[in-house]
Amino acid sequence: MRLRDFIIRRIILAIPVVFGVLTITWFLSYIVGDPLAMYITERTPDAAIPGIIHARGLDQPLVVQYFLYLNSLFHGDWGVSTTTGADQPVLTVLAAKFPATIELSIFAMIFAIALGIPLGIISATKKDKAADHITRIFALSGVSMPIFWFGLMLKYLLFFQFSQWGLPHLPGGDRYNYRAYTWHPTTGFLLVDSLVFDHNPGLFIDAIFHLIMPGFCLGYITLAIITRMMRSSMLEVIKEDYITLAKSKGLTERVVIYKHALRNALIPTVTVIGLAFGGLITGAVLTETIFNWPGLGRWATNSILNSDIAAINGFTLLVAFIFVTANFIVDMVYGVLDPRIRFG
Amino acid sequence: MDSDSQIPVFQDEGSSSLSSMFGTIQIVFVMISLLVGGIILLGNLAYFIEELLGMTLVPPAFLGNWAIQGLLILVLALFLLRTNAGVMERVPDAFSSSFYLNLFMIVVYLTMGTLGLAMASIVVIQLILMLLPGVRYYWWVEFVEDTKPRVKETRFTLHLVRKSPLVVVGIAIIVFMVSVALAAPMLATYKGEDMVFKDVRLPPGSPSNDIKLNYLYYLNQRTYDPTIMPQYKYEELTITSKYLETVEIPRIFIGVSDLDTKTDAVSVNVTFRVYNLTQAQYEPMTPAERLSYLYANVSVVDQNLLQYITLPDKEGVYVWELQFIAAYKTTTWSANTRVVLAYYSNYPIHIWGTDNYGGDIYSRIIWASQQDLRIALSVVLVALSSGAVIGAVSGYYGGKLDELVMRVTDIFFAFPGLVLAMAIVMALGVRSLTTISIALMITWWPTYARLVRGQVLSEREKLYIEAARSSGASDSRILFSHILPNTIQPVIVQATMDFGSVILVAAGLSFIGFGPPVGTSEWGMMIARGQNYILSSPWMTLYPGLAILVTALAFNLVGDGIRDILDPKLRRR
Amino acid sequence: MSETLIRTENLKKHFPLTGGVFRKVIGKVHAVDGVNLEIKKGETLGVVGESGCGKTTLGRTILRLLDPTSGKIFFEDEDITEIKGRALRKVRMNMQIVFQDPMASLDPRVTIKNSVGEPLVVNGVARGRKMRDMVLELLEKVGLTEDHLNRFPHEFSGGQRQRICIARALALNPKFVVMDEPTSSTDVSVQAQTLNLMKDLQDEFDLTYMFISHNLSVVKHMSDRLTVMYLGKIAETTPYDIFRKPLHPYSFALVSAVPIPDPQFAGRAHILSGEVPSPISPPPGCRFYPRCMFAQDVCKVEDPPLRDLGGGHLVACHFAGELDFGKSAQMEYADSVEEAVS
């Protein structure tokens, strides 16, 4: 099967998934409460409610309501969220909160990749030696770590205790120091805005410092996953004949590992990285709550606790969309990286 | 066992009265099991319908508790029914299957309280009967022969386990955590929901600021009862060294109050006496004789309603006695009076400190281990069994069904687990541990469905499946005796690691506020409680988090280790 | 001897090939494409051919492990093409198969006793102690002992495993056994042992074999008659020594490719040019013409039928018997050996 056919097939297969997700969110909004709640807030005048019910077709049969719901979704009308304090359309809030989460996730991912791949290589090349054992326990702790607890402990040590001891310490939360700097959001990505639009290097450095702790906390699980995957795929590759051949040609260990083995060992790791990116968004729910990060995750948690159905639906849909896209890209990349894969 | 002569010649039916007796008893027993399982299942069904309709049918209470057991018993009994046919024909296979089934039955019954104990003992009798020479003759040799290779394999696996230190450590931690959870009532110094309000946020190792009231006797008389007056109430009181450790002055208080007005304004006369006697000595004596052994006595009369007796500060055995005398033979005092006999002792030390409600962190962690391990167990078991069945069927039969199942799992995979679980908890409405479990079961089964399906697909193409098919084996036989046993290993690995993940996600859920109601001991809730006090009292967060980390790590260590151990590539050939 | 046990009529097995966005069937693999075959009671029919020529598929289709696309299969003159369920199981008791890879054809988690005994149990022949005794008897027939009963497949060597597979195939006392390259995964010394065992068993149990292999020498050693397959079709079936009298150009090419243990005759193999054409779109007319050195125009359009050239020697070539292949090195070598012996 050719790549084009494969892509088309994958897109077609993704359609029922997206519809399933839509249906489930609609269904949930029905179980959780009144679907009307998506479109009204406490500030909606009572007199306007019958009009909204009629306009939204909530007096229609269920099937019609379902299609009306889909219709309004496709037209960009995702309901009204109250979680942020004011009544705002969900899409607006999503757009506003999205960059913060993405910035954090990308930072966490960079950190995880930059540490995880070398650790995995070390662990594989030093198999069953002390370095390997330490790396394995480090990686296993990563997947066993309650991320919210880890965040709290990091905050306690690096922020509170360090400042108690008079040491330089990291900030305990937020995206930047509100008192010292002002930020004029343009793209929503603080790191980009501060350098490109605000020309404020101080803010940029401040933002980096604010990213370190939540980024490390969020990235630890991914780091662990990447390390483990890298180790096992590296071990597989090292056993292959062409590595033995490369060694017997007299190449140095370094060249063999980094030039011949690494490339092939990276293929499964790339898959994992892609899938883990979706997982980062989940992790962000917990991390953002702890570090007071004004992103999607914290907003979603608050909206669920506030029974803000429109917001929950919006968040779920967005995340599901990211997941589906990430899987899709992973499949593509896999095909490109590994010429043996036939798109079957 | 290894020579032909030891294998007896196949004999005809009826040659041993003992064996036919065994067969008969077996049939009777299977019928009883079917009945018990059926009744329990019906009872649960009744409960379920009752809940659904919101009406009250009130089936007997014991039925409600054992839904899973009831189902298992029913299934096992149906299998036993089948092996019975073989037993009647003296087929050695059938005897040994019946042996295994009975063993499993005992395990199921043992989880079921008194009823189960009674049934289990019947099964034990069954097994003993099977081992009598008259019956054993028919099957024992084959049984041993069949079991040997399995034992050999198991021993080899255990040998590999012993060789990998991380797995051993992991198993040790798991065993430790499970025994802590089981022995929680003994290990925990406080109850899970105990709150000592004077002990708010004490650092680890602090003694309690409060003293605890221990009741020796407690009477809440709400209805008029003429037989209560005048009346004696007595009991033996032993002062031990342990008692003296926690009680600084062994004082015993007697108090009387009015239940309605909550005041002391009661017209009563209660006399409290302590004798220098053991109960055995006390009982045969007349009241007059007892008086010579009287250690002390106080009376609670009318307005003077709180009195105490101080006992000597050394070990000894006493009898305390209460005598109720109504001053005026009216109905009022006995109808609304509370009589309390109590002593004060210190609360135990808070080894790991207390939280902001004065809950003891150490005890709460121990009680929480019960909850968290139970969630993990139930979620993994349900998700695994349902996911495995769905995955196996869809993988084996393929076609449209397979497409459908895979699309459904795709949808589930499109949601991040935590978010979906959050949404489900919200949809279910009730915040409880059960809700969390259900939400996690719903989010978790697709993992197993995918895993098992993939395994079945690869296994299905193996030559030995074709060999089995060419020898005439049916689909169900191929699926259950060839494919599933060969797919089980990665599933076991996944399940072991998922124990850890479920604990993490469940804790995460309750951390962000989807947990059980306030006050329940649960690790995630404890961390959530501690996060606001992280700067002043980090111990509130530290210890429960460590408990989660260590438990999850243990499961991951074991899972990671047995992945290598079970890897067929690494096993001997 | 002359009674027919297995007969196929224009047997076809095509595997669908899917592709495109909707996984539509865009073609089919003509694995077995119109095979007429007769196997007589008590004989061994050898089937040779290159890998991918459909010989294994043919074997499995005859046993109904694969459902034929069209054509008919007869077992003892009974049409078994369409039968299902109980009837199929009953027929299968008489037809068994030994697979190429003995490791893969034994369930790694089942002891030898239960593996070999499985046919007995599922067909209700014997259970428990009786099953054990029967299995033991079978194992002893193939040269294994009681000690081996309760072991797992991984504890055996390749040759032993193959013998276990043979024992399993014989458990139901079948009439017909398909040997699907039974010796290709064992080394030569074990191979000879196994082959001799098979011959002995054939005499003892009055078996009919269909012996599939790509190794011409082995097939020749085993078979009474020999069938050469090419691209899903039979090229030649001969009761004679194929080394001496190949009539199809493909058979000749096969024969001349057999290695000779004498350097004097080596290097004269008639190597076929080109690749085997894809079975997805086999060439029209004679399947062999793109590679045939004697190809004529007629070969491109007309598919040659299987003709009897006397004595049951069937050849599917327009010019069978008219072609002069010359003397192959193998033939010369055989002659020289004979000379040396005499």
Physical arrangement of strands within the biggest beta sheet of chain B: 1-8-3-6
Instruction: Encode the helix/strand succession of chain C as letters.
Output: EEEHEEHEHHHEHEHEEHHEEH
Largest sheet of chain B at a glance?
4 strands, antiparallel
Helix and strand content put the structural class of chain B at alpha+beta
Net shape of chain B: globular
Residue share in helices of chain B?
Answer: 55-70%
Oligomer: heterotrimer
Query: What is the residue-averaged pLDDT of chain C?
Result: 82
Cα radius of gyration of chain C in angstroms: 21 Å
Principal-axes shape call of chain C: globular
Question: Approximately how much beta-strand content do the residues of chain B carry?
Answer: 5-15%
* Structure summary, number of beta strands of chain C: 12
**Beta-strand share of residues of chain C:** 15-25%
Structure summarized in a few sentences:
The complex is a heterotrimer of chains A (344), B (573) and C (342). Chain A is mainly alpha-helical and 344 residues long.
Summarize the SSE layout with pairings:
The complex is a heterotrimer of chains A (344), B (573) and C (342).
Chain A: H1 3-32, H2 49-55, H3 62-74, E1 80-81, E2 88-89, H4 90-125, H5 130-144, H6 147-164, H7 190-197, H8 201-239, H9 241-248, H10 253-291, H11 296-305, H12 309-337
Antiparallel strand pairs in A: 1-2
Helix pairs in contact in A: 1-12, 4-5, 4-8, 4-10, 5-8, 6-8, 6-10, 7-8, 8-10, 9-10, 10-11, 10-12, 11-12
Chain B: H1 17-53, H2 67-88, H3 92-110, H4 113-131, H5 133-136, H6 140-163, H7 165-182, H8 184-187, E1 211-221, E2 231-239, H9 241-246, E3 251-258, E4 269-275, H10 279-282, H11 287-291, E5 294-301, E6 306-310, E7 316-325, H12 332-335, E8 337-346, H13 361-397, H14 399-414, H15 417-428, H16 433-460, H17 463-470, H18 475-511, H19 523-531, H20 539-566
Antiparallel strand pairs in B: 1-8, 2-7, 3-6, 3-8, 4-5, 4-7
Chain C: E1 4-19, E2 24-40, E3 44-48, H1 55-62, E4 70-75, E5 78-79, H2 85-92, E6 95-98, H3 112-122, H4 128-141, H5 158-170, E7 176-180, H6 188-205, E8 208-212, H7 216-222, E9 225-230, E10 233-238, H8 249-256, H9 297-301, E11 307-308, E12 314-315, H10 329-341
Parallel strand pairs in C: 3-8, 3-9, 6-7, 7-8
Antiparallel strand pairs in C: 1-2, 1-4, 4-5, 9-10, 10-12, 11-12
